[in-house]
Amino acid sequence: MNKRDNPCIVLFNPAPRRGFQPHRRVELPLNLLYPATTLLHAGFSVKIIDQFADPHWERNLHDALMEKPLCFGVSCMTGPQINRALAVSKFFKRFYPEVPVVWGGIHASILPEQTLENPYVDIAVVGEGEATLLELVKALANNDSLSQVAGIAYKENNHYHLTGQRSFVDLDTQPPLAYDLIDINLYRRKIFGSDHLSFNSSRGCVYRCGFCYGSVVHRRVWRAMQPKTVVEHFRRMIRDYGIRGFNFTDDNLFVNMKHAYRVLEEIIRADLKIRIGKLHIRIDAIQKMDHEFLQLLVRAGVERLTIGVESGNQRILNLIRKDLTVEQVIEASRKLKPYSIVPVYLFMMGLPTETPQEFAQSLRLAQQLLHENPRASKSFNIYMPYPGTELYKLAVEQGLRQPQRLEEWAPLNYRYVPKESPWMVPETKKLVSALDFPLMFMGKGHFYKKTHPVVVGLAKLYHPIACYRIKHLNTHFPIETKLMKGLGLFGRHD
User: Fold this and answer.
1) In angstroms, rounded to a whole number, what is the distance separating the alpha carbons of residues 473 and 16?
2) pTM of this structure
3) Taking CA atoms, which of 104, 130, 413, 493 is between 20 and 30 Å from 82?
4) What residues contact 295, with CB distance under 8 A and at least 6 apart?
5) Does residue 79 register a pLDDT over 50?
6) Which residues make Cβ contacts (< 8 Å) with residue 276, sequence separation at least 6?
7) CATH numbers and ranges of domains, the chain
8) Nearest C-alpha neighbor of 189 from the set 267, 251, 247
9) 199, 247 in Cβ contact below 8 A?
10) Residues pairing with 342 in the sheet
């Protein structure tokens, strides 16, 4: 095909949040890089525009649209990202109303038909995008019927059509990611003294956590690259970009403990001298590890483990189907203490039916974990009702009005308590709203270690106030929280 017969596909990554960020955590847009790489290898021209990472995204978007593209792809999560995804889709339609706008990502995969009801969305990719988007683009280029493209939903003559599920891709056979489609320097994150980039070696999870959209999108199916494939990817990134730090985005590498062990062994055997700044793990996986396995993590360069605890109350843990006990959390935490690994404990708050007393138990457990291990850190996020999940059904039973339009999902946010949040007990809602900001300062100040000096100074002054509020569950006159949210520096990012 000559250039005229080979129109470009433009892919857009909307910013997940707006406003000033004290330390802006920009991740590689793997959601776009995977399908873009497949398109590139098939001979198509592709451009990626990242609104969050690229300070010149507007100019680059205008440049990309100078010539009429074959389609315009947008990847989007449930929540405030929808606002910016819709804004750019509307903007694109002003230029090329006849060119299809294709949405992919979590939200379009879960609610494809409702997504298509918006006039600015024409096609939804349901599930993984690599093979689906390639087949879709070929159909568009050849004016073929979309009915034969598995894994999409589309509208035609005011009717919605779903073409059925597509099989998951084989991660081992996927080509190396086309990092030259982006400015990789925008995504380097300095962690533990080394530049890190996001990396994914497996997808899906077999567990049944009731709050997790992964069980809906990935259908509780887990698949992974072979250990040698993982190392080959690392070698390439070291050779081409000098990157020796990697943040794993895997939902759960340790679904198969033997596989995880072999991956770590292969990293050590290759003598890559890499650092792993993030690796997600479940409490029960830590419990299964002996000293040899834990030492293997250290020898492979694992610096930090993110660990989903969610709650310090057993009723809540049972309700959300976490399949662990509070005692297991404490035991696993103590098991990690002798090792150099930094554990980051992840908690949720404002869960359906959670009482103030149960929320307080989460605070006490977090404080205990931080006290027992000085290296430990924590993160508290507000419960986000993802459609299609078991916990979402409970939230609806508790009074959540199900959004009827795409844009009505935008106010849902893990950093913001919506005015209408009937799944929260009123007293718990008051606590969560008031303590959300102070909780970022629980512990020894991990929040403000690596950010702007002015922010560091203000944070040190505020730290004792935050600790007082948390200790006493004090919600009186939360001026600082309202001020920060009013300035757009914290909380709602729509």
Assistant:
1) 30
2) 0.93
3) 130
4) 339
5) yes
6) 245, 246, 247, 248, 300, 301, 302, 303, 304
7) 3-162 (3.40.50.280), 173-436 (3.80.30.20)
8) 247
9) yes
10) 304
